[in-house]
Amino acid sequence: MDANAIKKFQGENPQDLSEVSGPQSPERLDNQADENSNVTSQQMTVENVSEDIKNQLPPEALPLFVTAFNSIYDQNGDREAAMAVAWQTIEHNENFEKGADGKWQFRPIEQGLNNPIPTSAA
Prior knowledge:
The protein is globular, with a radius of gyration of 25 Å. It contains six helices and two strands; from the N terminus they run ααααααββ. It has helices spanning 3-9, 17-21, 26-36, 51-56, 62-76, 79-91; strands at residues 96-98, 104-106. Helices cover 47% and strands 5% of the residues. β1 (96-98) and β2 form a beta hairpin. The protein has two domains: 1-37, no CATH class; 43-113, Orthogonal Bundle (Rna Polymerase Sigma Factor, Chain: A), CATH 1.10.1740.70. It has a two-stranded antiparallel sheet with strand order 1-2. The N and C termini lie far apart (65 Å). Residues 5-37 have low confidence and may be disordered. With 122 residues, it is mainly alpha-helical.
């Protein structure tokens, strides 16, 4: 609190007391919420991904897409660049492939010499 606010709070100027202890503006509350949370209003979460993106990606791809987007967006604040990197991340991931319908699909890992089937500890 600055010196004037302290004086107002101590009652030196009672008519101004409401300015110190009264309700805060919605804008100020929004800024405090942003400061107190780990997710800014511009970051993407699996819950707030647009329906268009959700319709194009399988559920397994959403966390990867969101992480890639937020990583780039946090670095430079460019939503367009972040979106491009997020799509490239899905495109270059071996676990996803684009289907004939144009939507991305989860591709199970194929078993073979490079990917042996894990043995149980039994």
